Amino acid sequence: MDNNDSEQKAALGIVWAIVGAVVVSVLLVASYFGITAGKGGNTATGTVSAPAAGAGQVAAAPAAASADTSTAAVPAVVKIFFETGKSEAPASAATDVAAIVVYLKANQAATVAVSGYHDASGNADVNAEVSKERAKAVRAVLVAAGVEEARVIFDKPQVSLGGNDADARRVEVTVHQ
Fold first, then answer.
1. What is the DSSP string of the chain?
2. Which domains does the chain have, with CATH numbers?
3. Among candidates 161, 154, 84, which has minimal Cα distance to 126?
4. Do strands 152-159 and 78-81 pair parallel, antiparallel, or not at all (unpaired)?
């Protein structure tokens, strides 16, 4: 029976690695073609910046196609974009953070920082509160995906200088080892 359990765990690890690789690939393609919030629609989407790779090299997926995910590459910063004046996590948030969740499950010592951003216009206190609520919504998505709440650290709400309106309405999720 132990042999079946280890085979099932190995198969499940491979499935999660493939799912993680597919999610990151889709997000990278979307990012490459500029399919993000503020470009062609009002829907909020997240993007992932690819980890640096040398010329002619492909950046490693967060989980290589093997059952051993402890050597998975650290996922890049994930940006989750919100609608104007809204603090509810967009429907895409769970997919956006999937690679980070896989990494955190494989690396129990790692934590994740969640930073809410807002623009400089309007009431600074209201803006800070909205960005804090957005960060809490992203934490809830991470916790619902199986990340321990104690491993999600909040950074102080930050003002987004420059960029466009969509950049100001974002939460960034960054892995700390």
1. -HHHHHHHHHHHHHHHHHHHHHHHHHHHHHHHTT-STTSSSS---EEEPPPP--TT-PPPPSS-SSS--TTPPPP--EEEE--TT--SPPTTHHHHTHHHHHHHHH-TT-EEEEEEEE-SSS-HHHHHHHHHHHHHHHHHHHHHTT--GGGEEEEEEEE--SS-HHHHSEEEEEEE-
2. 2-49+63-176 (3.30.1330.60)
3. 84
4. unpaired
Other beta carbons within 10 Å of 128:
16
Residue with tokens 């994740």: 112
Strand partners, 173: 78, 114
Structure tokens at 142: 């991470």
**What does the block give as tokens for 122?**
């309007």
Question: Bridge partners of 47?
Answer: 79
Whole-model pTM?
A: 0.59
Q: What is the pLDDT of residues 54-86, one digit of tens each?
A: 323 233 333 333 344 455 677 779 999 998 888
Q: Which residue has the tokens 């100001």?
A: 168
| CB distance 46 to 81 below 8 Å | yes
